[in-house]
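Hi R.,

Here are the chain sequences for the assembly we discussed:
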Amino acid sequence: MLETSNHLLSVRNLKIEATSYPPGEPPKRITIVDGVSFDLQRGKVLGLIGESGAGKSTIGLSALAYGRGGAEITGGEVSLNGSDILTLGKGGIRSIRGAKVCYVAQSAAAAFNPAHKLGDQVIEASVKHGLMTKEDARKRALYLFRVLGLPNPETFGDRFPHQVSGGQLQRAMTAMALCSNPELIVFDEPTTALDVTTQIDVLAAIKHAIEETGTAALYITHDLAVVAQISDDMMVLRHGKTVEYGSVQQIIEAPTQDYTRALVNVRQEIRHEAPDQSKPLLKVDNISAQYSNGFKVLHGVSLHLCKGQTLAIVGESGSGKSTLARVITGLLPPSDGKITFEDKPLTPSLKSRPRDDLRRIQLIYQMADTAMNPRQTVRDIIGRPLTFYYGLRGSAKTARVAELLDQIEMGNGFLNRYPAELSGGQKQRVAIARALAAKPELILCDEPTSALDPLVAEGILKLLMKLQEEQQLSYVFITHDIAIVRAIADSVAVMHRGKLVRFGPKSQALSPPFDDYTDLLLKSVPEMEIGWLERVLTTRRMESAGN
Amino acid sequence: MSNPPETGTLPGLRFRSRFPLLALILERFLLSLALLLAVSVLIFGGIEALPGDFASTYLGQSATPQAIANIRADLGLDRSVVTRYFEWLGGAVQGDFGTSWASKNSVSEQVGNRLGNSLFLAAFAAIIAVPLAVGLGMLSVHFRNRMPDKIINVISLAAISLPEFFIGYLLILWFAVNFGIATFPATVFDGMGFFDRIKTIALPTATLVLVVLAHMMRMTRAAILSVMSSAYMETAELKGLSAWRAIVKHAAPNALAPIINVVALNLAYLVVGVVVVEVVFVYPGMGQYMVDAVTVRDMPVVQACGLIFAAVYIFLNMLADILAIVANPRLRHPR
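And here is the predicted structure of the full complex:
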């Protein structure tokens, strides 16, 4: 590690292309990465950041001379220890992959082979490359399991991927990458699929392991706050081109480009909290629910929402927040408790609700993609509730659809488009228009922005707030993202394992004194501040020492 | 028979949570038995519902009502359907399918002989077809979307698209008539030497192989391709493993379950679906026996054949289910 003047990885003018086959058109060459250059020193971490389609994963994989899904590296140089790996033959590239450069995928659950034990998969590359004997590799794996804080490290390797949790799998994947003592590891969004309270543990484990082993890393993510905790340098990418490249400190504290500034400033408060009113629009009273197999998902949840306001329901996966929405819509009748809407009780089951009750509560889903019929045009999709609830047909329907398209800031040029021709943000806007078409009083939003890039999500949130102002809409907004809650909510409900742990106006719910879970949740949300991770970990250590 | 899940709800649940794999296999077994029982009712009821009866067919148009009634009484047809069903089922469970109305011989004896012939033909076809199909499937994965893949696909599709009797006659025309290198008819008899037997059944075997090959081969190709596109295959590649090791160690164990399923389905087809092929090649198997029995309304024989075909079909599918369960690491190693 003395030769600091020599770069470990040096990328020059990288160009990566792929062929796309649009339906009904001749194949097109598209450029995914265009003229990207950077250097990485031994033991350092470079963060690659950008929205989906920015080419960050593609650049990361080029360090293994690999093009995913038909992507081809067509120009430039990728030098590892001074020699260009793009000019190596198949055998030469194989001797680098898994030995000198390793890869940690976004979804460890998919990247591990379900048919083999974790331990065997972790040591496979080291043994097959002849770097260690099987026994030595097992010892190293054990050491890495300990470093990464995995439970029962002695027997962890005997387990199959489906027998451990998502956070543990992600750490096991990191152990797999570290096992062969590589010079470089490419981390491709390793914590994106995890809950925040799990993410912080994995992030800490990865950071610790990088320091302990002295490997260099490319860390790919779309979350600026995460990359700030782990990287030395950072490159902001957009449409396959470099927007800004510099030290983490410079980019976070003094970004020079507008795009970077927009990324840094995303999710600031859009809406100020409105006061609680005496007469709530929706009242959920002591609701319990279970699945048909008898598994209990909700335990006595009570909350309420006032007209024209937003109630944010926060929780991790499995906390029962989406189930609560299903109960309110009537999709899953509760086993106990009652729901009141404008002082009148709602019938538990969807089937027995009058059509007007159905109209007044609408739903927006996380995946706009799967919530729309791919063979219907935007006109048909938005027009369906118009016909169903208001009997509109023909030109009256088209006129109203055009009006709704205006409200979601899209315009009637989109009338005859199919969902496949829309971007992710546009699809979600159409889903919003479909909900608006019923002229509802309450819209249940089930993580409508979590599949979208930050700037697109920001646009959707602003649209929802604008519509709320104009039409006195009420929202139940389900999310796992505390930043969104801070930005848009009037009142907040925190859920954990099917129970409501905290409920109240935003200013009270998000300020101390906290219950244990809300405290953990709030402290786990990465902040865009260098040294945040160390600070949280130090506090935690002190607290556990104090106990 | 000791049956832990049947001894009560609570111990049953406990057994299920302690030995989930065993419980699942046992469940499959019990389900198969129940299915077989249901099929036996269907077979018996279906034959009962057929128009016309043995007596009037046997005696012809000019039979007197008295003669018909006599024969019916002889065969016990004047008793209630339920009594006859349970009598028949009771015998079948002990391997006694009654006596043939037409030949007055024991059905079990005749069926035993014929079943042996049918199974021999099916087994011989399977021994050739299964490795060939899986091999061709892997080959077309290796050359996917290139010439060899396309040729394999076109030929196997053509083979599956032609009805088996047509393929049978084509093969007879070419190999038995034009070139004279194969024998026709494929009639085997007791005391025939093994190699003579194989030579005799060459054409029906080839017909069966051609019929089942395409399905198995295409499913093998699809199963391996779907595994090849999964993220863990990318992981294997990014570990720098050789293509061969990636396929053998990482792809094959995961493609096993769908391949087992389609192989079992086709094995079942080989046994059950040979009827037409046996008739074309005059092969003394179950299929031909059953067709003969249907034409003279020899009900005990038809029932026996139907039940045996159903049993073979259900057994092979159960075997495929159990093997697929055992091949699944999630079930083999519960949380």
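Chain A touches chain B through 28 residues (CB under 8 Å). Residues 41-67+96-264 of chain A form a domain with the Rossmann fold fold (CATH 3.40.50.300).

Let me know if anything looks off.

Best,
T.
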